[in-house]
Amino acid sequence: MSLALVLSACKSDPALPETWEKRIAGTKSTKEKLKAVEDLRSSKYMSAAMVPMLEKRLADEKKPEVKAVIARVLGEAGQPSSVDALVEAIEPAATDSDAKTMNKEIAHSLGHIGDPKGAPALIKLLKTKDNYTVIAAIDALGDMKAKESFDALYFIGTDDAIEPFITKKAIIALGNMGDPRAAPGLVRAMFKERKGISFYGEASFALYQLGKPAADLLVPVVDGKDKELLDWASKNNVKDVALLAKGVQVLGDLHDRRAEKAIVGYLNYKSDFDDIKLIMRMRAADALGRMRSKEGVKPLAALLDEEEPNARKEYVWSLARIGGKEAVAKLVETSGKGSWGAREESMRGVAMLGEDPSVFDKFAAAEQKLFEAECKDDPEYEECKDLPGAVKKHQAKILTYKNRATAAAECKSDAKCWVKHLDSKDEGTRERAAYEIGRSGNAELIEELMKRLPEPNLDTRLAIIQGADWLIDDSKDAMATARKGLPALEKQVADERGKTEFVKVNEDLRRLLTKLQRG
Known about the structure:
mainly alpha, Leucine-rich Repeat Variant, 4 domains, two-stranded antiparallel sheet, 1% strand, disordered N terminus
């Protein structure tokens, strides 16, 4: 091969930045420029070595759509050296769509790189008139936890004139930043609605991320002693029960027991409206279960005659979390009272707390007579149209609950014995095993729960999450061990984001992740 051919081959070597620079710069066609950048982006040759060339191209290119694609590639490369070039490329007064898209991509890239040097430019982008760019800037500032952006984000998160979706994004960013100064505004945000849109989900999670500073504000709310918030609520048409119920929920998530006495009192909440009464009692039960309140066992057991199935379910679920075995006798009694939906919840409680498998044979034997009586009172109930088939189905379900009690008869309170039942074929047995281990305080078993967090059954996954959460609360050693599993947990949360089957239970998974990240 001649020297000329060798030199020509070297010049077109795709591993060299100058080859790609020549291709990108060497055409006047915007379409071809975009294709060249995308080809580099998707090729095996894209590496840190290409970054200086792309930074130069970002400065030299004229078309904003080309700059946008280059900015995206630089963001994915994640090199701090790109910050200056990206900031310089911003068009603060952009009016056409291509320039706005470029600003948005630059904001995304600055956030991905995460260098604090980019924060001042992102704060300026919060004032642009393009909502997509503003949202990208908010996300980036929240991800990089830029303290200097607090005032701007707090204004967006608390100003009622701002577009609701942008407000939600600012609330999320404030939670990610973890600055305790956000607590007062986030507490109020839990109770606000604008254009029929609630901010409770975002605000309550952000308060969880803040931790103790949030609880410090919510304890007086739940105790009914925050007169300033009560006055604010009155002026903004926020019901007292909303203050209490939402405050109780967050304190339950945080396992903060300072308002435990007040929350136990709300199990007997009175209202002229049954739905409001039950909502408040159910939220109190949920919180007491999460914080393992022994003080809640007796009053919860007293509520088990409740005929509304969803309410009874909440009381039973709370007792199961607490480990309130003192309530087993009442659960057995109420397994024969009320509708099938309510009775089944009591039986589930016996399965989660009892140690006598034979009681489920008795429940199954009694089911035909009980359900026949139920159908006489409500013959239009769908299941009553095939009474024999319904009874058979109920009896089969009852006998599956027997598996948990059989395991309990073997293991009782021996946490190490329960570990083998984490792999039971029966999801209910796995569920009980997770709660038993979580309540044990045995830090050595945290790995057994952490490695099972991808559990597909939702009730069982919730128990595993809660059990791990309790062990971490109880032991610094458990926290240290669990933090070793952070990469796997972060990947799981990312992979499952948007999967509808896990949406509800994965709120608890995200809280566990937050607690581990907080350390």
